[in-house]
Specification:
The complex is a heterodimer of chains A (184) and B (315).
Chain A: E1 5-12, H1 14-31, E2 38-43, H2 46-61, E3 68-71, E4 102-110, H3 114-126, E5 131-139, E6 151-155, E7 162-167, H4 169-172, E8 176-182
Parallel strand pairs in A: 2-3, 2-4, 4-5, 5-6
Antiparallel strand pairs in A: 1-8, 7-8
Helix pairs in contact in A: 1-2
Chain B: H1 21-35, E1 52-57, H2 63-74, E2 78-83, H3 95-104, E3 109-114, H4 119-126, E4 130-136, H5 142-156, E5 163-167, H6 174-185, E6 189-193, E7 209-211, H7 214-218, E8 223-226, H8 242-249, H9 253-257, E9 264-266, H10 279-282, H11 289-309
Parallel strand pairs in B: 1-2, 1-3, 3-4, 5-6, 5-8, 6-7, 8-9
Helix pairs in contact in B: 1-5, 1-11, 2-11, 3-4, 5-6, 5-11
Classes of the chains: A alpha/beta (184), B alpha/beta (315).
Chain lengths: 184, 315
C-alpha cells in the first residue's frame, strides 16, 4: 500500500453501530431460540471487541452473559510466507470447552473469507461444536472462498481499491466505520 | 499500537549481542502468545506446515535438541536430526559444505550447535536459509538466555531494574554471555559471581559487577541464575574441586535464608545436585527450573516462527 489512503465516506457512526449490534443480538437470540449453549468468540483484534459488546447486549436482553473468547488466527493464515509485513502474534484465549456449544464467531469486516477460514480451522482444533455461525458488522463482498455470514450488520458495495475501516473505542478511541480510498 | 508495530527482519538468530531491546521484546511477546498452544488438547498449529527444520548438533545435547524438536513440531514443521557421530563430518566434510548440502535438501531452518565460537555466524553467512544458534563454543546460547529472561519476566512482571546474579563458571559459559547481553539490554542490574579463575578478563566491560562472595552477591538479588559447573572443560586443573566449590559458592537453604524471601532460583540444566545447589533448593519453592524447561518450548517456537519469515542476511 504505497499510495496514501483518504477517507471517502462514513458508513456508520457511534449510534448506528450500537443499534446494529443490538439488532444482531436480537437476531442471534431469535435464530437460536434463546441464549442457552451459546458462546461468542471474536477474531482478534476488533472482532474480539465486538464479541464482548454482543455478549453484554445479549445479557441485557435475555439473562446471563454468554461466555466470550478470543482467537488470534495469525498461525493459521494461508499467506504467512508471502506477506511482506510480519503480523504480531496475539494470544488465543478460550477459557471454556466449545464441544457441543453453539459458537457465534464474530469479526468486524467480511471480505475474502480467508480470515474466517483460518478461524474455522483453528476453532475445530479446540473441539467439535454443535455448529458455528458467523456474525459480522460489515460485509463488503469479494469473497474468495465459499463462506457466508448468518448475521450481517450492514452490506456495503465497495471496489477493491477501497478499504473498509472499522474503528472502535476500545482500540481506536472512536466508534465509526469509514471507507478509505487510494488517492489517484 | 498498530502504528509502530515491531518488526523482525533477520533470517537468523545468532546471539543476543546483535539484537536491539525491541527485537528481544518482540521474541518474548511472541513467546508469550505461543505458550498457550502447549496447554491445548491439540498442541499444534499449522504456522510452519511444509517447512523443514534440521537440527545439526556437533556437541552432545539432549534438552536443547529435544526442546527445539518439540517447538518445531508444535508449529507443524518437519524435523530432521543430524547425528554428527554418524554423518559425513567424520569423513572430513567442512561445516559450510554440510550446510550447503542441507540447503540443497531444501531445508528452511538449520538449528546448529558447535564447539567453535562463531560457527553459527559462519554458517549463516554461507547460506540463504535461516540459521538458529543453539550454542557456539563459549560465545552465545541465545535461546537459553531468552527462556531464562522469559521465565524471570513471567515471575516478576518486568526485567528493568531487577538485580540478577549469575553464579558459576562465567569464563566458559555461553549461557552467561547471552544472559548478560539480554538482561543488560532490558535494563536489569547484573552481578557475576565466581572464584577469580572462572571470571573472564574484561567481563565488566559488558556492564556487570563482579563478586567473589556469594553471600554478598545474593544480598539484594531478585533472582539467581546458577550455571552448571563444566568440569569437563577444566583442562588446566585450575577449577576448585567439587566439594570446595559447593562450600564456597553452592546455593543452599542457609544462603537463601539471608537473601530476599521470594528470590527466584534458575538453572539451565543439567543440574549437578550437591555441587551447584543443594537438592533442597533445587526442589524448593524458589526454584523455577522445570518452568524454564516448559518456557523453552514457547521461546523456541517464537524464534523459529520469526526467523522463518525473516529475509535479512547476517554480516
Amino acid at each position: 500500500m504505497s499510495s496514501l489512503m483518504k477517507e471517502k465516506s462514513k458508513i456508520l457512526d457511534k449510534t448506528a453501530i450500537q443499534k446494529t449490534l443490538t439488532r444482531l443480538a436480537h437476531e442471534i437470540l431469535e435464530k437460536n431460540k434463546g441464549p442457552e449453549e451459546i458462546v461468542i468468540i471474536g477474531i482478534m483484534n476488533r472482532g474480539a471487541h465486538l464479541a464482548k459488546r454482543l455478549a453484554k447486549i445479549i445479557s441485557e436482553i435475555d439473562g446471563p452473559q454468554p461466555p466470550v473468547g478470543t482467537i488470534d488466527i495469525t498461525l493459521y493464515r494461508d499467506d504467512l510466507s508471502v506477506i511482506a509485513e510480519q503480523p504480531v502474534v496475539h494470544k488465543t484465549d478460550l477459557m471454556f470447552d466449545i464441544a457441543n456449544k453453539k459458537v457465534i464467531l464474530v469479526d468486524d469486516v467480511l471480505y475474502t473469507g480467508r480470515t474466517v477460514r483460518a478461524a474455522l480451522t483453528e476453532l475445530l482444533d479446540f473441539g467439535r461444536p454443535q455448529f458455528i455461525q458467523l456474525a459480522v458488522l460489515i460485509d463488503r463482498g469479494f469473497r474468495e472462498l465459499p463462506i457466508r455470514a448468518e448475521y450481517v450488520g450492514k452490506n456495503i458495495p465497495t471496489s477493491q481499491r477501497q478499504v473498509v475501516e472499522v474503528r472502535l473505542e476500545e482500540s481506536d478511541g472512536v466508534d465509526e466505520v469509514v471507507i478509505m480510498e487510494q488517492e489517484q | 499500537m498498530a502504528t509502530n508495530k515491531p518488526k523482525w527482519i533477520r533470517k537468523d538468530l545468532l546471539g543476543l549481542g546483535d539484537l536491539s531491546r525491541e527485537e528481544i521484546e518482540l521474541i518474548l511477546d511472541t513467546a508469550y502468545s505461543f505458550k498457550e498452544i502447549s496447554t491445548r488438547q491439540i498442541k499444534k498449529v499449522p504456522a510452519l506446515r511444509g517447512k523443514m527444520v534440521v537440527n545439526l548438533f556437533y556437541e552432545p545435547s539432549t534438552r536443547t535438541r529435544v526442546s527445539f524438536e518439540v517447538a518445531a513440531k508444535r508449529l507443524s514443521a518437519d524435523v530432521i536430526n543430524v547425528a554428527v557421530e554418524t554423518s559425513s563430518v567424520k569423513k572430513g566434510e567442512t561445516l559450510a559444505d554440510t550446510g550447503r548440502n542441507i540447503q540443497a535438501l531444501k531445508a528452511d531452518i538449520i538449528v546448529v550447535r558447535h564447539n567453535c565460537s562463531g560457527a553459527a555466524l559462519m554458517l549463516a553467512r554461507h547460506l540463504d536459509i535461516s540459521v538458529v544458534n543453539a550454542g557456539d563454543g563459549w560465545h552465545e546460547h541465545p535461546t537459553q538466555a531468552l527462556l531464562d529472561i522469559f521465565t524471570l519476566k513471567e515471575k516478576m512482571g518486568k526485567i528493568s531494574g531487577l538485580n540478577v546474579v549469575i553464579v558459576g563458571d562465567i569464563a566458559h559459559s555461553r549461557v552467561a554471555r547471552s544472559n548478560i547481553w539480554g538482561l543488560t539490554k532490558l535494563g536489569a542490574n547484573v552481578v557475576v559471581c565466581a572464584p577469580p579463575v572462572l571470571i573472564p578478563a574484561a567481563i565488566e566491560q559488558m556492564g556487570v559487577r563482579i563478586s567473589h562472595n556469594i553471600e554478598e552477591a545474593l544480598e539484594n538479588a531478585d533472582a539467581v541464575n546458577v550455571l552448571r559447573m563444566q568440569f569437563e572443560r577444566d583442562e588446566l586443573g585450575a577449577f576448585p574441586k567439587q566439594m570446595e566449590y559447593f562450600r564456597n559458592f553452592g546455593i543452599t537453604k542457609e544462603r537463601l535464608g539471608k537473601a530476599k524471601r521470594d528470590i527466584i532460583v534458575m538453572h539451565p540444566g543439567p543440574l549437578n545436585r550437591g555441587i551447584e545447589m543443594s537438592s533442597e533448593v533445587a526442589d524448593g519453592a524458589n526454584s523455577v527450573i522445570l518452568e524454564q524447561v516448559t518456557n523453552g518450548i514457547a521461546v523456541r517456537m517464537a524464534v523459529l516462527f520469526l526467523v522463518a519469515q525473516g529475509r535479512e542476511k547476517s554480516r
